[in-house]
Amino acid sequence: MKHITIKDVAKKLNCSVSTISRAFNDKYDIRKETRDHILETAKEMGYSPNPMAKSLLKQCSNQIGVVVPEFINAFFPEVIIGIQEVFIKKGYQVLIMQSGESQITELENVKTLENNMVDGMIISLSLETKNVDYYKKLIQQGFPLVFFNRVSNELETSKVLIDDYKWAFFATEHLIYQGYKKIFHFSGPEGLMFTQNRKNGFIDAHRKHKLPIENDSIITAGLMINDGEREMEKLINENNIPEAIFAVNDPTAIGAMKMLKKHGYKIPEDVALVGFTESRLAPLIDPPLTSVAQPTKEIGRTAALLLLEQIESKGIFVPQTVILNGRLNIRESSMKLK
Question: CA 121 to CA 111: how far, in whole Å?
Fold first, then answer.
């Protein structure tokens, strides 16, 4: 089937291409009756504008890119739902890519989205990402960028975060109020801002309640179930079992729980557990896991609105860091039996 062009419409109506173009772009110097007739004829002929040409003309593509580290956990898909809720209503397409926790893949994703002429990007950094020079260059060029969850302090652009410090403090304090004294923290990878903030919350809760923190009570683990399993097995082999564990996220807590149960320990009678991120597994495992819920869809919507503001401001905007609240969902895994 032949693709109908603007020249075909002009030929059909026996008028100039410029007249057809003015009708399509709703210019002031064309009569309404003429414009309506041209649009109706074009519709009957099956004409549709070339999206790329339209984008070049408007200097925008009505597409935005999203780059996330992984889809294994529900956190990032739920954030993306929030992003889509905002942009789809505004007539944008959302192009989604994942880095697989690789800095190289992340940069390839970003460059691919650039080549697709997206109007802006929303990004959460991979575990490997230390060098953010490419993002600095994009920001200097006025390219709209918003970061969420995993962000860099080196980048002067808008960011969306949860109050990791506050909720790590409350999660640790909950364990202290339950009467636990020997509490370990399974920390996230070094270099991530939320790793440090959650660690600081754990430390300051101990300071407030004048509880000592042993040198071995903060353990750099990771973010996956196997990271929690590995570190818990080490502690079991060393016969260094805490009364409670506050983990950087749910998968790490669940990994620790699996290993404890494998070796015959009971939760929470022998070891209590608290996670972070309120994964879908948290209320379903046995016993249900106490966890800090993050407003995932709100994170997505907030990031989308910040990006939209940048796009529409045409480079004149003030970077904002928005810190959202959380909620501690207390369940059986952390409740000391009376």
Answer: 11
Question: Going edge to edge, which strands form the sheet with 183-187?
Answer: 218-220, 183-187, 244-247, 272-274
Closest C-alpha among 310, 323, 305 to residue 82: 305
Task: For residue 177, give the CATH number of its domain.
Answer: 3.40.50.2300
Tokens of 155: 């980048």
Structural domain span for residue 81 = 58-162+296-325
Number of domains composing the chain = 3
pLDDT digits 0-9 by tens, 212-256: 988 889 999 989 999 999 999 999 999 999 999 999 999 999 999
Q: Are residues 138 and 285 both part of a single domain?
A: no
What pTM, to 2 d.p., does this model score? 0.78
Of 134, 171, 174, 132, nearest to 153 by C-alpha is 132
pLDDT of 58-76, one tens digit each? 456 789 999 999 998 889 9
Contact 145, 138 (CB under 8 A): yes
Mean pLDDT value across residues 99-124 = 95
In angstroms, how far is the first alpha carbon of the chain from the final one?
Answer: 77
